[in-house]
Amino acid sequence: MCVQESADDRPTMSEVVAMLTSESVILPEPNHPAYFNLRVSKVHESTSVVVPCSNNDVTITEEPDGR
C-alpha cells in the first residue's frame, strides 16, 4: 500500500503502525501500484537501456490465526 502513485492513496504513518500492531484492523484493498521504469544493463556493452515496465499484479494472502 505504500507504493501508490498518489500520496493521497497511501496510508499515514499512524495508520501503518496500527496495521502492524493490531490483529483486528481490516486492511483496505490496495489500488494499482504506480508504473516504473526498469534499468537493464547489456552484458557485453558499456551502455544501458531503459525498458518501460509495469507490474500491476497484486496477490493478497490471508494467514490463518496462529495463536
In short:
The chain has one helix at 13-21; strands at 36-41, 48-53. By secondary structure, the chain is of the alpha+beta class.
Compile the SSE list and pairings.
Blueprint: H1 13-21, E1 36-41, E2 48-53
Antiparallel strand pairs: 1-2
Number of E-type strands: 2
Largest sheet: 2 strands, antiparallel
Number of helices: 1
First-last Cα distance: 26 Å
Structural class: alpha+beta
What is the strand content?
15-25%
Unreliable residue runs: none
| The number of domains | 1
> What order do the strands of the largest sheet run in, or round the barrel if closed?
1-2
- Alpha carbon gyration radius: 18 Å
Provide the descriptors you would attach to this structure in a database record:
67 residues, alpha+beta, 2 strands, 13% helix, S-locus receptor kinase C-terminal domain-containing protein
Q: What does this entry look like structurally?
A:
It comes from Aegilops tauschii subsp. strangulata. This is S-locus receptor kinase C-terminal domain-containing protein. The chain has 1 helix and 2 strands, in the order H-E-E. The chain is an alpha+beta fold and 67 residues long. Strand 1 and strand 2 form a beta hairpin. The longest helix has 9 residues, at 13-21. 13% of the residues lie in helices and 18% in strands. The chain has one helix spanning 13-21, and strands at residues 36-41, 48-53. It has one domain. It has a two-stranded antiparallel sheet with strand order 1-2.
